[in-house]
Sequence to fold (305 residues):
Amino acid sequence: MSAPVAGSATSADDLELLARLRRGDEAAFTQLVERLHGPMLRVAMIHVGNRAVAEEVAQDAWVGVLAQLDRFEGRSSLRTWVLRIVANRARTRAVRERRTLPFSSLDGAAEPGRPAVEPERFLPAGHRWAGHWASPPRSWGDVPEERLLSAETRAEVGRAVELLPPAQRAVITLRDVEGMTAAETCELLELTEGNQRVLLHRARSRVRRALERYLDETEVAR
Amino acid sequence: MTDPMAEDLECRQVVEAVTDYLEGAMAPRDRLRFDHHLALCEGCQDYLEQMRTVIRVAGRPAADAVPPETMAGLLRAFRDWRR
Fold:
């Protein structure tokens, strides 16, 4: 059972944009670049691990996109198609430069995972309510929205994402930062659905811990 | 037969199953057990809400600006392609 695959088919908006691109409409192209260049850079970064190289790969991928535009068959969203092109080029580039860091060399889901929550926050074996919360999470319902969505809080979450092991970082970046579907993420990272989910779970759990720590600390500081 | 709800989940299991739950990747029976636990457990309700907040805060707020020189270069490529 998988989450619904939004963006799996070409939408009416995509088709219109495509028609304009094929006519050579510069405004349409500018719009597409504004929408996709950032995500392309981040997909490239996952594989090449270097900002300058990622920028080169993304620019090069745009040339590839244009060269193949007439062959785009509309079986996926335009975004998925473009990101597939950049992912392929980034992988090729990573292999050529023999970088060992990239994510393709790691099957992070095979590593034993840490528990999502520190074990000591649950009641111990032998207790009548063993395995239930000893120290439950607090509701964040009273944290003002502008605080949660502030640049500081976002930066803290961004730092927590940066500190994740590469495979977890790749998955949470595509899913939660970029808002891609599970299917798109599996395809771009060549992961099975099950592995994608395990990595997402570990990543989100760790980031939650970091955010909890941050919110608790800054609360005390007030 | 035994009532499927009789074996209640522990909170410790809930926090490990939360992603499967949010991803809609649970068997119907497991989902039912999860919902049952959630209905009775404020700690796990708050935990689930926290996970939703993490997803929201992690999301990119806006499209990033493309540097003008990058855009200019790409537009040149676009014009070449049209020819």
